[in-house]
């Protein structure tokens, strides 16, 4: 049995949008490219045909992957948590030795450090889940223990 993956509503919507695009648009584009490449004749030396078939394989693999992710998704609703408590879908402002940073708390598959989206399963995520503004936590990191203070907690509506 596959483990459930947690998603924010936004993250789950992105999965569904990608699935819809691939099944309704991209799949048809690839079919047309294969048909066009076939019209060029001899398939044994037809690089356009090979390329289109490779693209088809990539698209179909991603569709299967998305189907599994969607089927095993657990979507966190805004009503599942108190807006003042850090949880999946929260935006938090943290302080680490005076340096402030803002993170969005998301599911593991949505995490993107370049967009300041951290997983609820990351070291920081685990440490601050359930905390409120004013709470302080110790996070065990590779470089040692880090003291973090939760300055603000909000939810995007």
Question: If you had to describe this structure to a student in words, what would you say it looks like?
Answer:
With 157 residues, the protein is of the alpha/beta class. It has two domains: 5-76, Helix Hairpins, CATH 1.10.287; 79-155, Roll (Chitinase A, domain 3). 39% of the residues lie in helices and 28% in strands. It has three helices and seven strands; from the N terminus they run E-H-H-E-E-E-E-H-E-E. The strands form two sheets. It has a five-stranded mixed β-sheet with strand order 5-4-3-7-6. The chain has a two-stranded parallel ribbon with strand order 1-2. Strand 3 (90-96) and strand 4 (99-106) form a beta hairpin. Helix 1 runs antiparallel to helix 2 (47-71). The longest helix is centred in the first third of the chain and has 30 residues, at 9-38. The radius of gyration is 22 Å and the shape is elongated. The relative contact order is 0.16.
Features:
157 residues, two-stranded parallel sheet, 3 helices, 2 domains, 5-stranded mixed β-sheet, Helix Hairpins, Chitinase A, domain 3, alpha/beta
Give the SSE map.
Layout: E1 5-8, H1 9-38, H2 47-71, E2 73-76, E3 90-96, E4 99-106, E5 117-119, H3 123-128, E6 136-141, E7 144-155
Parallel strand pairs: 1-2, 4-5
Antiparallel strand pairs: 3-4, 3-7, 6-7
Helix pairs in contact: 1-2
């Amino acid at each position: 049995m596959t483990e459930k993956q947690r998603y924010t509503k936004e993250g789950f919507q992105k999965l569904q949008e990608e699935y819809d695009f691939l099944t309704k648009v991209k799949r048809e584009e690839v079919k047309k490219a294969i048909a066009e490449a076939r019209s060029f004749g001899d398939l044994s030396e037809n690089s356009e045909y090979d390329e289109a078939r490779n693209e088809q394989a990539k698209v179909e693999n991603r569709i299967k992957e998305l189907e599994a992710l969607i089927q095993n998704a657990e979507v966190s609703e805004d009503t599942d948590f108190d807006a003042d408590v850090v949880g999946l879908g929260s935006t938090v402002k943290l302080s680490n030795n005076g340096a402030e940073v803002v993170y969005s708390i998301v599911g593991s598959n949505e995490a993107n450090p370049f967009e300041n989206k951290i997983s609820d399963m990351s070291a920081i995520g685990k440490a601050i889940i359930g905390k409120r503004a004013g709470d302080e936590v110790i996070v065990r990191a590779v470089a040692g223990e880090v003291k973090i203070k939760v300055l603000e907690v909000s939810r995007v509506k």
